[in-house]
TrEMBL record:
Gene3D superfamilies: 3.40.47.10. Belongs to the thiolase-like superfamily. Thiolase family. One of its GO terms (molecular function) is acyltransferase activity, transferring groups other than amino-acyl groups. Residues 7-263 form the Thiolase N-terminal domain. It holds the Pfam family Thiolase_N. One of its GO terms (biological process) is isoprenoid biosynthetic process. Keywords: Acyltransferase, Isoprene biosynthesis, Transferase. PROSITE patterns: THIOLASE_2 (PS00737), THIOLASE_3 (PS00099). This is Thiolase family protein. SUPFAM superfamilies: Thiolase-like.
């Protein structure tokens, strides 16, 4: 075990609750602290002695997610006051960037043990509420149009010539794969239950509060059919000249995820049994109007840097921000769909912005462990034209 290699000791996530759903009354700080508490119990570390920093992604760091939520989470978790934390924002790639930064710091010898992850409560701090389309300088808008991400997804479909049926096929497979994975218990090893309160109306019409334990994702629609998907209205274009609908777009959800990333020296010192090694990472910038093609060059760059090819990778996770993003990535990289998002993706389980990146890497870790695969690659599109990628290797 290489002394300065970055190893993932364990990785977990909360269930994802749909917008205004089971986590409506859960504070983002409480939701974000759940993975920390679970990792402490599962790994058995001493936060004060072992955790040198917390890197947490959050795309809307305002209101209840403000004041550097990464610093507040260990305090909410009941940890010692000397555990620091930093909130970071690479938009949709924030949680994955937290993992990649942790790996870089460990490989550079700056840290020996870091918790990396992310949190996003899209119900209580809605997407885009930290800015508006009028906040851009004329210097920027003289160069580029400002368009919603959904329009970028439409532009991708046009550029590659994808039909409504082709993008809906990705969406249908995502829902069916997720349903099968949930039925088969494939998410059990990575999900941590969350206690919360929900309100309901009783028989007398009075509002009552129930305490519940959330143990599985709320957003999946296992009964989805191709016929249902085909009848959904367009979201970003008010005519028939488009393909993007609520059914082939990622779901708006609340959730958090995190993992323990440690050096080989720390792993051996503590006697931990890591699940994976972070092999390489990469970033890319692309046109900020087309915007969502970033996973294509990010994948190419990380493979080249690692001296690997598509054929070397056993499993892929590509964030299903919109189905057309995945369609284009599959076509350009040549990656097989039957090894991509095998347990469903964000169209099914949702996309809690700042948490998704670390959650996708978490999915890879546990599925490689379940299947005995060796290498996994996770990649995401990012607003205003970026892409991010990470390759991991299962540790036997």
């Amino acid at each position: 075990m290489a002394e300065n290699d970055a190893y993932i000791v364990d990785a977990v996530r909360t269930p994802f609750g749909k917008e205004d759903g089971v986590f409506k009354n859960t504070h983002p700080q409480d939701l974000g602290a759940e993975p920390l508490k679970a990792l402490e119990e599962r790994v058995g570390f001493d936060p004060a002695d072992d955790i040198e920093d917390i890197h947490y992604g959050c795309v809307t760091p305002k209101g209840e997610q403000g004041y550097n939520i990464a610093r507040l989470l260990p305090l909410v978790a009941g940890w010692d006051v000397d555990v620091p934390g930093v909130q970071l924002n690479r938009q949709c790639g924030s949680g994955q960037q937290a993992v990649n930064f942790a790996a870089a710091n460990i490989r550079g010898g700056l840290h020996d043990c870091v918790i990396a992850g992310g949190v996003e409560h899209m119900t209580r701090e809605p997407m885009g509420s930290d800015g508006d389309f009028g906040s851009f300088s004329e210097t920027y808008t003289d160069r580029f149009d400002i368009v919603p991400q959904g329009e970028s997804a439409e532009l991708i479909a046009e550029e590659w010539g994808f039909t409504r049926e082709e993008v809906d096929e990705i969406a249908y497979d995502s829902q069916q794969r997720m349903a099968e994975a949930m039925d088969d218990g494939r998410y059990d090893s990575q999900l941590v239950s969350v206690e919360t309160e929900v309100e309901r109306e009783d028989d007398d019409g009075e509002t009552v509060t129930d305490e519940i334990v959330v143990e599985e994702d709320e957003h999946p629609r296992p009964g989805t059919t191709k016929d249902v998907l085909g009848k959904l209205p367009l979201v970003f274009r008010g005519t028939d000249d488009g393909v993007i609908t609520p059914g082939n777009s990622s779901g708006i959800v609340d959730g958090s995820s995190a993992m323990v990333v440690a050096s080989g020296e720390k792993v051996e010192e503590e006697g931990w049994e890591p699940k994976a090694r972070i092999v390489d990472v990469a970033l890319a910038g692309v046109d900020p109007v087309m915007m969502l093609t970033g996973p294509i060059p990010a994948t190419e760059r990380v493979l080249e840097s690692a001296g690997m090819s598509i054929e070397d990778i056993d499993l892929f996770e590509v964030n299903e921000a919109f189905a057309s993003v995945v369609n284009a990535w599959l076509e350009e990289t040549g990656a097989p769909w039957d090894r991509t998002n095998v347990n469903g993706g964000a169209i099914a389980h949702g996309h809690p912005l700042g948490a998704t990146g670390s959650a996708l890497v978490t999915k890879l870790i546990h599925e490689l462990e379940r299947t005995g695969g060796r290498y996994g690659l996770s990649t995401m599109c990012i607003g205003f034209g970026q892409g991010i990628a990470t390759i991991i290797e299962r540790v036997e």
